TrEMBL record:
The keyword Transmembrane applies. Signal peptide: none annotated. The chain crosses the membrane at residues 16-37, 63-88, 109-130, 136-159. Keywords: Membrane, Transmembrane, Transmembrane helix. InterPro entries: DUF2254_membrane. The keyword Membrane applies. This is DUF2254 domain-containing protein. PROSITE patterns: PROKAR_LIPOPROTEIN.
Length: 462
């Protein structure tokens, strides 16, 4: 249930219209509240600037002048937004458009314009039956003028914000911060299951080895956007069965494809198969696109896409690629908590009920490094930072599997340098950085793993 709510929130958060809609409703509500105010001593309350207008016709005239100006500024703000989205799609990647659409500053500024327009329109409509010298209309005109000034300064702030938002370094920082948050949230949800699976030595079957009688099939085609593991575990516990999933969030499945199997008493299989398949269909969320909130590797690839585009011949910006590598290194530091590629969920009696694949450090490291390394095969100025990033992760690794994956990446860098870099000195520099990774990792030995390996391997202050 929690994962389903996250998916809904993710969809709403990246919708450009939801916050402006709320602002517009607030603007109309504010105008309505002002126009139905009782006869209060407004002259005494605003005595330094009262009377503001000679009569209600002046208020109507002012609103008639402000509305076209507001609509023009609102159109300008939308035009600037479209230009920024176009530049972002060309230089940073179309998958980052969602981040720009979900930017709260952009939504808020557009919302201020919408609120101001709806306020003035609502106030103008409600002035139809008022007397010529109505004090409430004076207050509505004053508030409308103040909101107009706020909208004017908001446009200036908006232009400044959008100017900064398309700078690649700023985008890398913001996407990286969001990535670290997603990694932390994902670990909070599945970290305990990863430890359980590692301690139990849990393994998963291959799809071809699953008996069709016990198979669980996908009910539709698309990406697995999220899995409600806890909810599915509770449903399986009610059936006194055990389910092994073989697919994880982020993977694409076809309708009818095997995504898991049921293990239970053979006498109950015929009855439970329909019920458990129905439960899996409700808790395994499949859609047409991947979601960043429930898919760590998708979030990693947003930064990877920035780096790969920067290394393309049309852009050729190695500095952006280097910044992406270092920011990925900071995020990969947190992925070391994922020490095993499988999760195991227990019921209240510590009986295993559900297991399934999860993203582990090896998969995340490959998702972060492979495409950048391939695109930078002839660029020693990018390969060396990749090796330095791998070296920086060594003090925090927790398992032999993590060490072996780092060593594998270092060996690939050496082979890539020998094959692609023609300048001997450049090749030697890359090899030196990669061999330093091999030398330092060879001195590491696996230690006892606790609930959170990140905390255990943090250096202690002297």
């Amino acid at each position: 249930m929690f994962e389903r709510l996250i998916r809904i929130w993710e969809r709403l958060r990246h919708s450009l219209w939801i916050l402006p809609l709320l602002f517009g409703l607030v603007g109309s509500l504010l105008a309505g509240c002002i126009m139905v105010l009782p006869d209060l001593p407004f002259k005494q309350m605003f005595s330094p600037i009262w009377p503001i207008f000679s009569d209600i016709s002046d208020v109507r005239n002012m609103i008639g002048m402000l509305l076209p100006a507001l609509v023009t500024m609102f159109t300008l703000a939308l035009s600037i937004t479209m230009v920024v989205l176009t530049l972002a799609a060309q230089n940073l990647g179309p998958r980052l458009i969602r981040n720009f659409l979900g930017d709260h500053a952009t939504q808020s500024v557009i919302g201020i314009f919408v609120a101001n327009i709806t306020f003035l329109v609502t106030a103008l409509l409600m002035m139809g039956g008022l007397e010529a010298h109505n004090d409430v209309a004076q207050v509505a005109g004053l508030v409308g003028a103040l909101i107009f000034v706020i909208s004017l300064f908001s446009l200036i702030v908006f232009v400044h914000h959008l100017g900064r938002s398309i700078v690649s370094d700023q985008v890398i920082i913001e996407v990286g911060d969001r990535l670290e948050k997603i990694i932390s949230e994902t670990h909070d949800r599945v970290g305990h299951a990863v430890i359980e699976a590692r301690n139990a030595g849990t393994i998963l079957p291959e799809a071809l080895a699953i008996d069709p009688e016990t198979a669980i099939q996908a009910t539709q085609s698309g990406y697995i956007q999220g899995i409600d593991y806890d909810g599915l575990c509770k449903r399986i516990t009610e059936h006194h069965a055990y389910v092994e999933l073989i697919r994880q969030p982020g993977e694409h499945v076809l309708k009818g494809e095997v995504i898991g199997r049921i293990l239970c008493d053979e006498s109950q299989l015929e009855t439970l198969r329909v019920q458990i398949n129905r439960d899996v269909a409700k808790t395994v969320m499949i859609g047409n696109y991947r979601t960043a909130a429930l898919d760590v590797e998708f979030s990693l690839r947003q930064i990877v896409e920035i780096a790969v585009r920067a290394l393309s011949p049309g852009i050729n910006d190695p500095f952006t690629a280097i910044a992406s590598v270092y920011r990925l290194g900071r995020a990969l530091r947190h992925t070391l908590a994922f020490v095993y590629p499988i999760g195991l969920w227990m019921d209240d009696n510590s009986i295993a009920r559900l297991s399934g694949p999860v993203s582990d450090f090896s998969g995340m490291l490959g998702a972060a490094i492979d495409q950048i390394r391939q695109a930078a095969a002839q660029k020693p100025d990018v390969l060396i930072p990749i090796a330095q990033t791998l070296e920086g992760l060594i003090p925090f690794i927790s398992t032999d599997r993590q060490r072996d994956e780092i060593r594998r990446q270092a060996k690939i860098i050496i082979n890539t340098a020998r094959r692609e870099i023609g300048e001997p000195d450049d090749c030697r520099d890359v090899e030196k950085a990669a061999r330093r990774v091999l030398r330092y990792s060879a001195e590491w030995h696996e230690t006892t793993l606790g609930e959170n390996p990140l905390k255990e391997n943090q250096p202690q202050d002297s």
